[in-house]
Every structure is written in structure tokens, then in C-alpha cells.
Design goal:
heterodimer, A: Glutaredoxin, 7 helices, 49% helix, 9% strand, elongated, B: alpha/beta, Ubiquitin-like (UB roll), 7-stranded mixed β-sheet
């Protein structure tokens, strides 16, 4: 997935749409991250201004959600489900395999894909019945 | 008195009228519905353990310590979030609850310092003991290694002591309305954070609400840590702005540990701002002068001396001046920073010992038009409401005031109301904070050009009259119909329409129309205003325009409405009430009334002159003319605060005896011959009267540093002048005020101590005081409408001076800065800054942060520039907190036509880049007959401003007699070149005979 480099004008354009919606802070943070890949420090003041809240409030929401990033993401953002259903069908072995293959990943707890575990999410694309091979294949595409 | 611990009921009181009966631990009580179980228990004398609850904040239910059992219900609900219900049976302590509470406290203590820096103040340790926790079994990860945030000069944030109860965050949100704090991260990582930075870099405004709310030592006043725990409390009143907050001065011996806002404070209800809460260090600053000083000439060095010698020297000199130049050649100025009692004694000294009415007060330069305007229309010189009234307002019309900077505690209250849904209309040349600030957005901002207030108020009233919004029922029942008919005819003139005035005000007509409709159609609409209304050439006209608007829409005489001047200084209201004006005795009674004079003459044993004395600017003019040679200046730095400083300096320099009574040497004392050291508010025993007419007690928390009360010094001088003036105490001065002044008849220190505070009028008719005025009828009987023709100021932008300068105050500093400059508040604002719009800066090659030369036709100075969109193009703005920048070198001596309140808010200026910072102040000398020029200008200005429909010459003549000294009238009659006077003035002069010499 490719992201756009930070631009104040682009951010303002996005915020003009998100800031008028109910619960605008979270929606705005998500929109900024979807567009730029993360929430740069420069965006905080803009979001605060657009939503008419303080920087503190934006900071509170931003740091609460682990899915919101304050630094650019790695090229491939891999998340492996380690919740019970996936563990029972081999996510621990999958984790071990990925570590052996030298791949960085994050643990996640359930993508709602329990029938098709182990589940892996790569750059927001969900994979079922994941294996080291299928993950590496997806990474190389 | 010992340390005062205020009760905390845990949750706010219920506002419901309906009552329910509950049983708590076997105690039956009947209380308002929706009261929390915690509060109910507290009211029954049962205190439930708590950490996250406090009665100034909404219940939050996070600490899980206040759990209780309710018969017939499952589980153990938190008592703070559970409201009582009819017939409910509650147990607050059972073995099961004990176990839960011990478990909760064990978890808290497992991540809390074993000993807290604040000792007993830390509620965590207190609660652990309370619930019977013996030991902590858990060990593991903690937050005990986090570094302290010491960035704020007044308080520390020690995250290791923090239990993340959210009280600070909620106080910042709910009480102060700044939203500067948050909880960052989640789970174990969750910590209180100021926008993710240090406190000083954050959005925090240092009001202290979080420190007050914190149940642990996490947020603590630095003085508590350095001085130690306080041992006694003295209730007193803040000496900064006109809000008049009640504080608990917490003392250790004679050392002030901290000022904590008092929950029962009538004006502040437990809230504070950075100035009152923290910026009191000036009171014990090393710069304080504590010994009297004298000198022969102002070029001599000061010489310390005894009180006796200083007083004798001053009296000898003043008497000598009077002998040589006449009885009216001396006078004095009272201070709005001093107590009612101190002010009363000074005006008494002037009227009785000096034998003339040459007394004026610093309100001359701020709210004198309020006095004039509200007196003309309503019959009394005061705001109509109490502060609580705003909680009933649906629409707030805010004109020429910046409460978040100048009246921060009231601003917080206003913000609470606005967040609940009240609508706001801002009339201001600047985009002040309330126009748009987190969680608040004004419905309309009428961004007018400085100097066009009256045009806007007329346009608003025009719409109300033309579109059928006039409350005929109210007007018919309550107002003088003759004045109303004349006003209605005037206001409906097409020349007063928003469309006609758009080119003058620069505000789009449709916006004015919509704002007028919003104000007029509200159930309860209130007007709040500040010096942006009064400090204009038509200040008095504007105040009357505001009063007209309120009367026409029936917005007078009940909660939620009214006309509310926000007073700048702690005791502006009081100093005016105390007879500080040259034409009025205490209680706003004209000096010409023999019955009033008789009341005072009887008690004072002296005859009082029936003629008005000189106003401050008149004194300066007379000094330049050689007729005024001696002045007593109580706590006011006129050489910095008054307009056109060159003129002030020249006038002071022309006097033979200048007596300054103050805490510090200041700009004015450079011209003084006698310096009488004053007392800080922490040493005074008296009263201040705030913007809502609330008389608050000021109690001495420490002994006077000078060994005397200020009023004692005044009495000493009066006696040395030959007038036997004696008082036993502040209380006995108030007794004389009550005995002579009907609106204060029921006021005494004893009654104030009992009631906490009283709002005047307080007398037999209103023994408990008067929160809201004009309820059934106006003080003057019927409300009087006054025609308010818009007369543009003579101070116009020209090719040479194309910009308009307007001045004001910022949050952390206060007026001439004599106090705040001597505190750590300079960390926020260490110099005056000139705000410039981008387009004006760009065109002149001025960059942000660079030096700018600011010049007007009367002077020039150098300031640092800030480029901002808070001012519109064509307008620049600065403050006057620092003598080095001398903003008042620039302002002119143009003034309000009726009261001579200076036109601080409009000065035509030019700006240019400057290579260097401020050097020596550039003062211009005066030329010609300054007094005569002033007389001509003032006379023509009065003629231009009186309504023209009915006998204007009579009104002008009346004005001269009422407000001008006989000497000025005589010069107008006999010395002015008549060709320079307008036709109306000449007609008026025919009616009014020249006073005999």
C-alpha cells in the first residue's frame, strides 16, 4: 500500500470532510492515517483546530488506540491473530515460523475470522488458513 | 483561626425539587431526588471512602472505593454514580464491602510511594488507613521512576503519586473549560498528560483547578513543598480583577503558604485564575517600600524618614500651596485597588481637610461612562445582575470585553453556560478567544472597526424596532413612554439601519440583522461588556445604547438577563460607590444637593463645597495652567496608565507637592516629593466591592509591613492639615459609610462576617442585599430611553497614521504590571507585544518577532511584533503592562464626551520596522494653553453628542453645571474665542450664566 507524503493542504482538505461528522476526532485521525500512513505531529494541531477541541484531547485519543501510529509504518504491516481460536489451529507455530524467517509482525486479538484460522492481516488485507509460505508469498507480491 | 477544611459531599447537589426518603445505615433522611447515595450519606453525617469523587465535579465512578450495598439489588454499585430512590435501603459498611475496599486500596498502594511529599494531604494514604489496609502483597511493575514535571513556576506534577482518578482532567474540562489535560495511552501505561508535553508547553492556563482537585500529592503547589503545611486559614478576597474571588489564605505562622479558592465564595464558587491563585508573591517582594520617604525636588535622591516628618512635610507644603494659590489648588486621586474604607477616608480628607471637591478616581479612565450611562437610564451606577444569573441566559451579547484574559473566573462560568447550549454574540474588533475556542463557537462575531460601537448598537436596535421585536408590554409597564417614543422615532431613522451603517462599521448588514433577531427573540438575553465599550469618545453613549437595547427587549429585572459591566479592578465599583467622583458624594448623590451635603456636614463638622471639583484630566490641564499644584495619589500609577503620558508627565512636573501612596516606587513616584508606603491586600482590613455589587471582606492575614493601615496614614495627613479625622478600625469606617449612605445602610463588618458577602443595596428594604436590581421598578422609577446619535471620533485613520491601535490586557499580566511583573507570571508574558495583521505587516516589511516603531500624533515607542489573524487588517493591538514599552505614550487625550474617560481603544497610528528595541521614551512637550484647548474640545464634543430633538442647549448647559468646575466654566465663558465653539455651545452659554469669580 502506498501513502501520500505529508501535506498540510491535503490534510486540511481531508479534515474539512471528517470534522463535521459526529465524533470527529477519531474519524479525523483515521482519515489522516489512511491517507498519510500515520498521524504526524503536525496533524495534531490541525485536527484540534478543525474539530474545535484541544491538542490534549487529540493526544488522548491518538495514544489510546494502538492501531493509530505516530511514525510511518513499515513497508509491510503484518499482524498475526493470537486469540484462542487461531491458537487452537496453529497460530503459535505460525509465529515461530515467521520469527525464524526473520519477519517482523505484531500480535492481534481476533479479526473475526475464527472459522478460517490462523488469521493474518497484511497491510489491511485479511488472509485465512495462513502459513509461513502463504504469508511470505503475499509479502513478495 | 485554625486550618479551615471545607466539607466535600462527593458529588454536586441535585437541582430537583422533588424529594425522596431513603435509609442509609439505619438513618432515615428526605432529600432531593437524583442526589447521589454518596452525597446523601455525607449529608447524614456518614462519610463513604472515596478518591475520584469531589462535589465540584460530576460523578465519575472510577476509583471503586465508594461501593455500597443496596437492599434488593445485586452487586456493589458505586455510591457516587448511583442516585437515591424512594424507599431505598443502603448499607455503606459491611464485611463484604470492607474486603472490596481493602482490595482496591491494596492495588492503589502497590504502585504508590510509601511516603508522600504532601503528607496528610495525600488521600491515598488516608483512605488506606481508613479502610483498614494492613499490608500490600503485590510487587511488580510500577510508575515510581517517572520524573517530576517542574516546568510550571507554581506547581509540580509528580506522576509517581498519580492514581489516574481523572479529577484533574475533569476539573480542567468541567470547571475551567480549558481541556488542557488528558489521559494518554491505556491500561497500565495510562497516565495524566498535558497534551503530551510538559505543563508549561501545553495548553494549560495555570488556573490551579487541577491542583485543587488532585487527591494526592501528584499536583501540588510548590510553596506547600517549600514552606510546609499550613496551620491556619484566613478568608479574604483577591485583589486583582473585578470578579472578586474569595480565597482561603492558608498560613504557616505569618507566612502565606497558598491561596485556595473558597467553595462558598459568592463570586467564584471555588474557582480561581493564575493571578489570584498564584501571583501574590509581589506582596512580600523585596521591592516593597516600607518606610516613608521625602525629598525637596524630584531631582534629589529619596531620603527615608519617620512617618511624623513625612506627614508634617506633606501637610506643610499642601497648606502653603493653598495659601498661595487658593483652596482649590490641591486635590487627590483615590484608587480602585484599595478598600472601600481606604477610599472613603481619602475622599473625606479631600472634601473636609482640603476643603474642595478635587477628588477623582482611576475609574475615570475605565468605567466612568458606565456610571454616567446606567445612572441616566436606570437610575444607578451599577450592573444589574449577580454572576449566577448567567446560568439562566439563553443568549449572551458580549461587547468590548475579553473575559478569558481579563475576568478569567467569570469566563469559566460563561464557558460552562455556552457549552450547555447558550448562544454567544461577540462584538469586538478582535477575534477574542471566545469567538472560537475548544468546545465553544460564537454564533455571530460582529467584527467592527474600533470607534464604531454606537453605530453597531444603533443598528441592532434599529432591527429590533423595525422588525417588531420590541417588548411593548415591558416598555409600557416599566419605562418612561415619552423618552421611549422619542427614542423609537430616532432609532427607526433609515440612517440607523445596518445597511446604512455597514460602510462605517464594516460589519455586513445581514449579519447585524440576524444577531439582533437572535438577541431579541431569546427568552433570556444578557449583555456583558468591558472597557471596549467605555474607553471611547462615545463611551457613555454606548452604555446608554446598551441600556436601551435591554429595556426595549424586556431583558431587565430577572435572572438570565440584564446589563453587566465587567469591572477591571478589584474595587472599581466600590471606589465609585464611595464618592470618589468630583461631582458626587458616596452613593452617587450629586454634590449640589444640600440635603445630601447636610448628612455629611453634620458628621464631618465641615462645610462641603457645592460645586463639582476637577476630574483627573482637568487636574492635569489645570496643573499646566499653573492653578493646580499639589496632589495626593493613592495606589495608582497615572504616569504609566493614563493616556498621552507626555501630558501627564508635564502636568506632574509642574506641581510643587506630589504625594504617592503605593507599595512600590513606580513611574508616578519619579515626580513625587513624598512617598507614603502602602499596604498589600494581605495586610488590609476592609472590603472590596466587585462587579456584581458584592461587598466582600478583605481580612489581614499578616501584620502591616509599614506598621500602619493606609487609612491611618490618610487620617494622619488630614489631622496635620488641621482637620481632626479619627477612626478606630476599618469596621468603624464602614459604620460611617452605612450611617451616611442609604444603599449601604444595612452593611457592617459583623453582618458581612456572618453572611459571607452582601450585594448592595443592603438596607431596611433589602436587609439581605440585592442580587438582581430593577426587579419591580427601576431605581429611578421608570426606565429612561436615551437617544444615542452616532458621532464618529475625531481620532481618524489618516494617510500619515493609517492604522487604528486598540489596547487591552492579557491573562497573566495585570494593568500597569506593578504586581504581576514582580511574580513568575513573566514566564508567560515578559514584554508588551504589538499584534499586527499579516497584510499590514507584509506591506511594511515587518516580520514576526521583529522590532516595530509605533507612532501616533502624540508620541512613539518600539515594540516587538506578532503577526496574527486575531486582529483584522487596519487594526493593531497591544497591552500596557510594561513601563519600558509605554503604550500610553501613543494614546491621545481624546476622551468620552460625558465623563472624560480616555479613548484608549482608538488611536490612529503608523508602524515601521525598527532596527533596535526600545530606547529612551520619546516624549513630546506641550504647546500653547493646554487647558483652554481641552475646554474647547470638550465643550464642542458635548454639543455634538447630546440628542438634538428637544432643547439640546439646555442639556448642554445642565451638563456644564453638573460636571464642570466653576473655574473651567468661567474660562469657557470669558476666555475662549467664540468662533471656535459650535452654535449649540454658544446657545447653551446664553442659558448658563458665568459663575462669579
Amino acid at each position: 500500500m502506498s501513502y501520500v507524503p505529508w501535506s498540510k493542504d491535503e490534510a486540511s482538505r481531508l479534515l474539512s470532510q471528517t470534522s463535521v461528522q459526529p465524533g470527529p476526532v477519531l474519524i479525523s485521525l483515521q482519515a489522516i492515517q489512511t491517507f498519510f500512513g500515520y498521524v504526524p505531529d503536525a496533524a495534531i494541531g490541525l485536527i484540534a483546530l478543525a474539530c474545535n477541541v484541544t491538542r490534549a484531547e487529540v493526544h488522548g485519543v491518538l495514544t489510546f488506540y494502538s492501531d493509530l501510529r505516530t511514525a510511518p509504518p513499515p513497508t509491510h504491516h503484518v499482524r498475526v491473530c493470537v486469540a484462542e481460536a487461531c491458537q487452537s489451529v496453529g497460530s503459535r507455530a505460525l509465529e515461530e515460523g515467521l520469527r525464524d524467517a526473520g519477519l517482523g509482525y505484531e500480535q492481534a486479538f481476533c479479526f473475526g475470522n475464527c472459522a478460517l484460522g490462523p488469521a493474518v492481516n497484511i497491510n489491511s488485507k485479511l488472509m485465512g488458513r495462513a502459513s509461513v509460505d502463504s504469508v511470505m508469498k503475499e509479502m513478495n507480491e | 483561626m485554625t486550618l479551615l477544611i471545607e466539607p466535600d459531599y462527593g458529588t454536586p447537589a441535585s437541582k430537583r425539587d422533588e424529594k425522596v426518603t431513603v435509609d442509609i445505615d439505619g438513618k432515615k433522611l428526605t432529600i432531593p431526588a437524583d442526589t447521589s447515595i454518596m452525597r446523601a450519606a455525607s449529608m447524614a453525617g456518614i462519610s463513604i471512602p472515596k478518591l475520584c469523587a469531589t462535589d465540584r465535579l460530576k460523578a465519575f465512578g472510577s476509583c471503586r472505593l465508594c461501593v455500597v450495598e443496596i437492599e434488593g439489588r445485586n452487586g456493589t454499585p458505586s455510591s457516587c454514580t448511583t442516585p437515591v430512590a424512594e424507599g431505598m435501603k443502603v448499607k455503606t459498611q459491611t464485611p463484604r464491602i470492607d474486603r472490596i475496599r481493602q482490595g482496591v486500596m491494596e492495588l492503589y498502594l502497590s504502585d504508590h510511594p510509601a511516603e508522600c511529599a504532601v503528607g496528610d494531604e495525600c488521600e491515598v494514604h488516608a483512605m488506606a488507613t481508613r479502610v483498614g489496609l494492613k499490608s500490600v502483597r503485590y510487587a511488580g511493575q510500577t510508575h515510581l521512576a517517572i520524573a517530576k514535571d517542574e516546568s510550571n513556576p507554581y506547581f509540580t506534577f509528580d506522576s509517581t503519586e498519580c492514581i489516574v482518578c481523572n479529577r484533574c482532567v475533569r476539573a480542567c474540562d468541567e470547571v475551567q473549560g480549558t481541556f488542557a489535560l488528558t489521559i494518554e495511552n491505556r491500561g497500565f501505561e495510562a497516565r495524566v498528560s498535558a497534551s503530551g508535553t510538559s505543563f508549561i508547553e501545553s495548553e494549560c492556563v495555570s488556573c490551579g483547578a487541577c491542583v485543587q482537585a488532585c487527591p494526592t500529592g501528584a499536583l501540588t503547589e510548590k510553596t506547600l513543598l517549600t514552606i510546609g503545611a499550613p496551620t491556619r486559614t484566613v478568608l479574604t478576597t483577591c485583589a486583582y480583577c473585578g470578579v472578586g474571588c474569595t480565597f482561603k489564605a492558608e498560613m504557616r505562622g505569618n507566612e502565606l503558604v497558598r491561596m485556595v479558592p473558597f467553595k462558598d465564595g459568592g463570586a467564584n464558587a471555588g474557582h480561581s485564575c493564575v493571578k489570584g491563585r498564584f501571583a501574590w508573591g509581589y506582596a512580600t517582594h523585596d521591592d516593597r517600600i516600607t518606610m516613608p520617604m521625602v525629598r525637596e525636588k524630584i531631582t534629589d535622591p529619596w531620603r527615608q524618614t519617620s512617618w511624623e516628618e513625612a506627614i508634617a512635610y506633606a501637610a506643610r507644603s499642601l497648606k502653603g500651596i493653598q495659601k498661595k494659590h487658593g483652596i482649590k489648588s490641591i486635590g487627590g486621586i483615590t484608587s480602585s485597588r484599595c478598600t472601600n474604607e481606604e477610599v472613603y477616608v481619602v475622599q473625606k480628607m479631600i472634601r473636609a481637610a482640603f476643603g474642595n471637591n478635587n477628588v477623582d478616581t482611576c475609574a475615570r479612565v475605565c468605567h466612568s461612562p458606565t456610571g454616567y450611562g446606567l445612572n441616566q437610564t436606570f437610575g444607578t451606577s451599577a450592573g444589574t445582575q449577580d454572576f449566577e444569573s448567567i446560568e439562566h441566559s439563553d443568549v449572551i451579547l458580549l461587547i468590548g470585553a475579553n473575559p478569558t484574559a481579563a475576568h478569567p473566573v467569570f469566563a469559566s462560568r460563561m464557558k460552562q453556560v455556552l457549552r450547555k447550549g447558550a448562544q454567544l454574540i461577540v462584538v469586538d474588533p478582535r477575534a477574542i478567544e471566545l469567538v472560537k475556542t475548544p468546545h465553544i463557537e460564537s454564533t455571530f462575531h460582529l467584527q467592527l472597526l474600533p470607534g464604531t460601537n454606537v453605530a453597531i448598537i444603533n443598528a441592532l436596535a434599529h432591527v429590533i424596532a423595525e422588525e417588531g421585536y420590541i417588548d411593548r408590554e415591558f416598555v409600557n409597564a416599566r419605562c418612561d413612554m415619552k423618552s421611549f417614543s422619542a427614542w423609537e422615532e430616532f432609532i427607526r431613522l433609515p440612517s440607523n439601519s445596518p445597511e446604512a451603517l455597514e460602510s462605517v462599521t464594516r460589519v455586513p448588514a445581514e449579519k447585524v440583522r440576524e444577531a439582533a433577531r437572535l438577541y431579541a427573540s431569546a427568552n433570556n438575553a444578557a449583555i456583558y461588556y468591558g472597557l471596549g465599550v467605555t474607553e471611547h469618545s462615545q463611551g457613555s453613549t454606548m452604555v446608554m445604547g446598551i441600556a436601551n437595547l435591554a429595556m426595549a427587549t424586556g431583558n431587565i429585572g430577572r435572572p438570565g438577563v440584564g446589563v453587566n459591566p465587567l469591572r477591571g479592578q478589584n474595587n472599581v465599583q466600590g471606589s465609585c460607590d464611595m464618592g470618589s467622583f468630583p461631582h458626587e458624594l458616596p452613593g452617587y448623590r450629586h454634590i449640589s444637593n444640600p440635603l445630601t451635603r447636610e448628612i455629611f456636614e453634620k458628621i464631618w463638622g465641615r462645610t462641603i463645597s457645592a460645586e463639582p471639583g476637577l476630574r483627573i484630566p482637568n487636574m492635569f490641564d489645570a496643573a499646566m495652567n499653573g492653578d493646580f499644584k499639589g496632589i495626593y495619589i493613592q495606589g495608582e500609577d497615572i504616569a504609566q496608565s493614563d493616556p498621552n503620558i507626555s501630558h501627564v508627565h508635564a502636568a506632574l512636573g509642574a506641581m510643587e507637592m506630589v504625594i504617592v501612596q503605593d507599595l512600590f516606587l513606580n513611574e508616578t513616584s519619579k515626580f513625587a516629593h513624598v512617598f507614603l508606603p502602602g499596604t498589600s491586600f494581605l495586610e488590609k482590613d476592609g472590603t472590596f466591592t466587585n462587579a456584581e455589587r458584592r461587598i466582600n471582606r478583605v481580612r489581614p492575614v499578616m501584620p502591616s509591613r509599614t506598621g500602619k493601615s493606609e487609612w491611618e496614614v490618610t487620617c494622619d495627613l488630614a489631622r496635620a492639615m488641621g482637620y481632626e479625622m479619627n477612626f478606630e478600625s476599618g469596621a468603624s469606617i464602614m459604620d460611617e459609610i452605612a450611617a451616611t449612605t442609604p444603599t449601604f445602610a444595612g452593611v457592617s463588618f459583623a453582618k458581612l462576617d456572618e453572611a459571607g458577602s452582601l450585594q448592595w443595596p443592603c438596607n431596611d428594604a433589602e436587609p439581605e442585599g440585592t442580587p438582581i436590581m430593577h426587579v419591580d421598578h427601576f431605581v429611578r422609577g421608570e426606565g429612561r430611553f436615551m437617544e444615542t446619535p452616532f458621532v464618529p471620533t475625531d481620532e481618524k485613520a489618516t494617510r500619515k497614521f493609517p492604522l487604528l491601535l486598540t489596547t487591552g490586557r492579557i491573562l497573566s499580566q495585570y494593568n500597569v504590571g506593578a504586581q504581576t511583573r514582580r511574580t513568575a507570571n513573566v514566564i508567560w508574558h515578559a514584554e508588551d507585544i504589538l499584534d499586527i495583521h499579516e497584510s499590514d505587516a507584509e506591506m511594511r516589511g515587518i516580520t514576526d518577532g521583529s522590532w516595530v516603531r509605533l507612532s501616533s500624533r502624540v508620541g512613539e515607542t518600539v515594540l516587538k511584533a506578532r503577526i496574527t489573524d486575531e486582529v483584522p487588517a487596519g487594526v493593531v493591538y497591544t497591552t500596557f503592562h510594561f513601563p519600558e514599552s509605554g503604550a500610553n505614550i501613543i494614546t491621545t487625550d481624546y476622551s468620552d464626551w460625558a465623563t472624560n474617560c480616555p479613548e484608549y481603544k482608538v488611536t490612529a497610528v503608523e508602524i515601521a520596522p525598527s532596527l533596535q528595541g526600545p530606547t529612551t521614551l520619546h516624549l513630546q512637550g506641550a504647546h500653547g494653553d493646554v487647558q483652554l484647548e481641552s475646554i474647547i474640545r470638550m465643550a464642542n464634543q458635548i454639543a455634538a453628542n447630546v440628542p438634538t430633538h428637544a432643547a439640546p442647549e439646555l442639556a448642554i448647559a445642565h451638563h456644564f453645571v453638573q460636571f464642570w468646575s466653576p473655574e473651567m466654566r468661567e474660562r469657557l465663558h470669558n476666555e475662549v474665542d467664540k468662533s471656535r465653539l459650535s452654535a449649540l455651545v454658544l446657545k447653551a452659554l446664553e442659558l448658563e450664566s458665568s459663575p462669579a469669580k
